[in-house]
């Protein structure tokens, strides 16, 4: 078993070596025969391999442990988290709010902003807010949102058609993927012309 210098410093992440309080543990990994061991036997095996006994699943019964180099174990964990974070795509949702009586000037102003949002890769949540008795104009709000979607058809696609949720009629859109650029066609290479010279004897025999 290696030096316990990590025991206190990293105790909040994993219990290792003598900080593991279970009487029995289940060992996993390629460097030992997998199975249930007493904590004393597991620590003895870790000591023989000059590695650490690391508790990787404390809620299991018995807890699951692995005999490994704790520094390398932490490095691999951090690396996996970094890779997962890099693969995850952060979805940004921008909102555009209308009133049921939105005029053309306001409509075009918000349309311009919506185009910009979709071009930058953001999702779009467009909704009409009905205040008080304006809920009577819900059909008008639906027409407005459908017109909005039509104006944006070159920039995005509708994920959710206008639907009334409480006092708001909501429509969701996502950006269109940019078309893949076609690879430039390779110029055709002229095949070298082969000049065939006939021998005089062959010409005479042909005659």
From TrEMBL:
Residues 91-176 form the Translation initiation factor 3 C-terminal domain. One of its GO terms (molecular function) is translation initiation factor activity. It is found in: Cytoplasm. Residues 175-185 have a biased composition (Low complexity). It holds the Pfam family IF3_C. Residues 186-207 have a biased composition (Basic and acidic residues). GO terms for cellular component: cytosol; membrane. Residues 16-84 form the Translation initiation factor 3 N-terminal domain. SUPFAM superfamilies: Translation initiation factor IF3, C-terminal domain (SSF55200), Translation initiation factor IF3, N-terminal domain (SSF54364). Residues 175-207 are annotated as: Disordered. GO terms for biological process: ribosome disassembly. The keyword Transmembrane does not apply. Its main location: cytoplasm. The keyword Cytoplasm applies. It comes from the Bacteria. Keywords: Cytoplasm, Initiation factor, Protein biosynthesis. IF-3 binds to the 30S ribosomal subunit and shifts the equilibrium between 70S ribosomes and their 50S and 30S subunits in favor of the free subunits, thus enhancing the availability of 30S subunits on which protein synthesis initiation begins. Monomer. NCBIfam families: infC. PANTHER family: TRANSLATION INITIATION FACTOR IF-3, TRANSLATION INITIATION FACTOR IF-3, MITOCHONDRIAL. Belongs to the IF-3 family. This is Translation initiation factor IF-3. It comes from Dysgonomonas mossii DSM 22836.
């Amino acid at each position: 078993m290696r030096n316990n210098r990590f025991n206190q410093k990293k105790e909040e992440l994993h219990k290792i070596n003598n900080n593991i309080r279970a009487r029995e543990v289940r060992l996993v990994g390629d460097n030992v025969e997998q199975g249930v061991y007493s904590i004393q036997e597991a620590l003895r095996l870790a000591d023989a391999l000059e590695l650490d006994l690391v508790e990787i699943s404390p809620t299991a019964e018995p807890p699951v442990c692995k005999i490994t180099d704790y520094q390398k174990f932490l490095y691999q964990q951090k690396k996996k988290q970094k890779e997962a974070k890099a693969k995850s795509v952060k979805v940004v949702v921008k909102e555009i709010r209308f009133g049921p009586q939105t005029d053309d000037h306001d409509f075009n102003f918000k349309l311009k902003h919506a185009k910009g949002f979709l071009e930058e890769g953001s999702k779009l949540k467009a909704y009409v807010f009905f205040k008080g008795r304006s809920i009577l104009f819900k059909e008008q709000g639906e027409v407005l949102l459908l017109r909005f979607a039509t104006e944006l058809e070159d920039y995005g696609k509708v994920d959710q058609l206008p639907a009334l949720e409480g006092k708001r009629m909501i429509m969701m859109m996502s950006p269109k993927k940019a078309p893949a650029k076609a690879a430039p066609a390779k110029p055709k290479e002229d095949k070298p012309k082969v000049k065939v010279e006939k021998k005089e004897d062959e010409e005479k025999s042909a005659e």
